[in-house]
Design a protein that fits this description.
CATH topology of the largest domain in chain A: Aminopeptidase
Largest interface: A-B, 102 and 102 residues
Oligomer: homodimer
CATH class of the largest domain in chain A: Alpha Beta
CATH architecture of the largest domain in chain A: 3-Layer(aba) Sandwich
Helix content of chain A: 25-40%
Structural class of chain A: alpha+beta
Chain lengths: ~475, ~475
């Protein structure tokens, strides 16, 4: 690949400028107000595909936001790599905590990014990361060094559970036929500690509503006489963990595959400092399930967290009201063998059962997904490890992540393909938070590492 | 009072129109955005005072919203009645639950108001009620039947704790000198069951903030590893009541004066149907402190309720975030002998003590007030009872209310005056809620009952 890397060096500042242009589009999939912007972003990706010379470029409508597809088939007898990514982003609120507007990307120096970082919603998750694949393939095409076929499928609903992707994949098995799926939507341990995510947690996300009296009441006249829906919801949520940090939802742990002591010992070799972790988050202590370390709690154990809660008067000042309703968004991270639909059902049953008298409870499932694991002896994982070694000069560490990319399990089920998660983000990139950013060094290293994955994957495939 | 009542009948529709004009002014004291509107409403009241012929009319600035004052001194040797009310209103949200805009008053028929009701924020609390006094005095003045001196003090901060009224009263003891204070800011049991509020609960209102990590986190990566501030706040709130419905704040009940069995038996004579109560609120069961009836829980017992709570992502759809902060507004209703400042301090100490490791807690006091009780053998109470008998044809029932008008205790302390609470609202008027309304029958009966209070109070004063 003698021409690809010089091409990348030569065009890197243009690549950055193009990414920043895409980051100006507020493609927030969760909020219907941004529907047009999400579509605009799909067309931006379409345009990139066309400019770089892909064939069969399409913006494919779904019942939600569209999927952008493009491909380059150089020889049907060669392996095919299917690149997946998503052009939608998380909502940007709370806006007041951003130091610069979320959709006006700026490059600023940071303590840990040697070349500074782009600050914008979606910079790391996932625009900055999927865009690396476009630019890597552009570089290989322009240098006549693309070693195999490539297909791109970039969707617009990842942040809302990829609701319509499953149907699309199901209906387009032939179109999407490939040998491996390649995704950059995760992180690595540090800029000098490359890693490949080999496990992902599953997800069950629900919304709950607790209803008490049929209208908001004056808390002076009714206080102490009726079950207050907010107090009731607090009690119910508080009861979802026991004093050992275990989740009390009946049956929740029944299907969990316990990890062997050996595997836990292997995991424990990854560098981790509890003190640094606490300092970075400015917390006096960590918290979690008794009997597990912080990295274990965040990867191999299922969890339950409230992601949002609201009820009653939340404006300025004081209002003496007993709200008629209280609401919460609750998500559970799942581990291999836990079925998200079953967990959602168990939660629903449990939550309805623990409702105190005087209130009614409604549980609405949002979305879910299975956990997934990539075997270390697969040629996909091997090719990734070799690619990192070429650019970073050291072997990548396999890491089980706490996050969820539910579609990874779906791809395996529907297309029969394993997914390789070559993420170049850092833990501190504040994805899903105010001031999300992505290091320019990471962006560059991603674009340079990806062609090596292509090369080694093709070579390892030949030897099979 | 042979001329006053015909005058009222003749001018009643104009009175209603004037009230509706005032209700169009969104004088929401809690929200700084409405500051100008609050001031506009003060000038509206000033104008009413001038038009009806009061002297010494002033809009008196405070550090917050102004107080409107006016008086008619016909003979310094006669008794003086000081009328108190408030022209500010509660915030109108949730707006989507109003059937007509909160500041566009409309008259609609209802099942229980013989002449229909005016629907608007502040219709009952307290614009519709304090306005009755203006119109009653206008009628007596116009008919040459005002039997004593009258002073009006209408403030603009009742809904936010009357923060600057205490200072004003303190500085104007001579100006406010009177024999009794008369207030209509409470309710009566039913349109055919007149009642006088003889007890009010005190209040301590606080806002709490729980802070965990220094930024919002991705719940996949951090879920299960850090104490989630929303979950923590839920646990803390849940622990504020025990399984008997008792408040667990240390020392909370220490100064409560227990009510005698006799007094509880007397209270139990007021008509009350638990079934009707549940049906009206559409709840399967009531809830409260073990060992007390629903009316007792709502009047003679102290309580604690969450009035608002928020944290994390509360928009549409799903966001997998662990919030950095969670907040709640919490109020406690107090009974005689509980000191609001002490209770606030006890709450603060307790809440900080129960914070789990990994989060920090901040408690900010909003406002408070003492409970108050009016003796049934006072001439003020007697005059009220006789006034109701004149218009309703039956004795008023003395009622201990669960609400708080903290200034009643302050008036007694600073001015040495008892307050008579002649409220004409109904429980179902939805004060502090969407679709607040006030019956036109109640408005009329109020205007007609008030002159009888003046008359009987002057007569009873002579005999003392």
């Amino acid at each position: 690949m003698t021409a690809t890397h010089p091409y990348i060096d030569q065009h890197l500042s243009r690549f950055t400028a193009e990414l920043m242009e895409m980051l100006r589009i507020p493609s927030v999939s969760a909020d219907p107000q941004y529907k047009e912007q999400v579509l605009r972003c799909a067309h931006f990706v379409e345009n990139c595909f066309k400019t770089m010379g892909l064939d069969g470029v399409e913006v494919i409508p779904t019942k939600g936001h569209p999927i952008v597809y493009g491909e380059k088939i150089i020889d049907p007898s060669l392996p095919t790599i299917l690149v997946y990514g998503h052009y939608d982003v998380q909502p940007a609120d709370p806006l007041e905590l951003w130091h610069s507007p979320p959709f006006e990307p700026v490059i600023k120096p940071t303590n840990i990014h040697p070349k500074g970082a782009i600050f914008a919603r979606g910079a790391c998750d996932d625009k900055g990361q999927f865009f690396m694949h476009l630019k890597a393939v552009e570089a290989m095409l322009s240098s006549d060094e693309l070693p195999c076929n490539v297909k791109f499928m970039i969707e617009g609903e990842e942040e809302i559970g990829s609701e319509h992707l499953g149907y699309f994949v199901h209906e387009n098995k032939a179109k999407l036929a490939a040998d491996i799926i390649l995704v950059s939507d995760t992180g690595m341990l540090a800029n000098d500690v490359p890693s490949v995510t080999t496990g992902l947690r599953g997800l069950s996300y629900v919304e709950v509503e607790v209803t008490g009296p049929n209208r908001d009441l004056h808390s002076g006249l009714y206080g102490g006489c009726v079950k207050n829906p907010i107090n009731a919801l607090c009690e119910m949520i508080a009861s979802l963990h026991d004093e050992k940090g275990k989740i009390t939802v009946k049956g929740f742990y029944d299907s969990v595959l316990e990890i062997s002591r050996d595997d836990r010992d292997a995991m424990a070799k990854a560098p981790f400092s509890e003190e640094d972790y606490k300092r970075a988050l400015d917390i006096t202590d960590t918290y979690g399930e008794e009997g597990y370390t912080t990295p274990e709690r965040g990867s191999i154990r299922p969890t339950l967290d409230v992601n949002g809660m609201w009820g009653g008067y939340i404006g300025e000042g004081a209002k003496t009201v007993i709200a008629s309703k209280a609401n919460a968004k609750i998500s559970m991270r799942l581990v291999p063998n836990q079925d998200p639909e079953e967990i959602t059902r168990l939660f629903q049953d449990h939550f309805e059962r623990i409702a105190p008298t005087g209130v009614n409870v409604k549980v609405t499932p949002h979305h879910g997904g299975h956990a997934a694991v990539t075997p270390l002896d697969s040629i996909g994982y091997q090719a990734a490890a070799m690619a990192y070694k070429e650019t970073f000069g050291k072997e990548a560490i396999p890491v089980r992540s706490g996050g969820s990319i539910p579609i990874v399990a779906m791809f395996e089920q529907v297309l029969g393909l394993k997914t390789i998660l070559m993420g170049f983000g850092l833990d501190s990139d504040a994805i899903h938070s105010p001031n999300e950013h992505y290091g320019l060094y990471n962006f560059e290293m991603g674009i340079k590492t990806i062609p090596y994955f292509f090369k080694h994957f093709v070579e390892l495939s030949k030897n099979q």
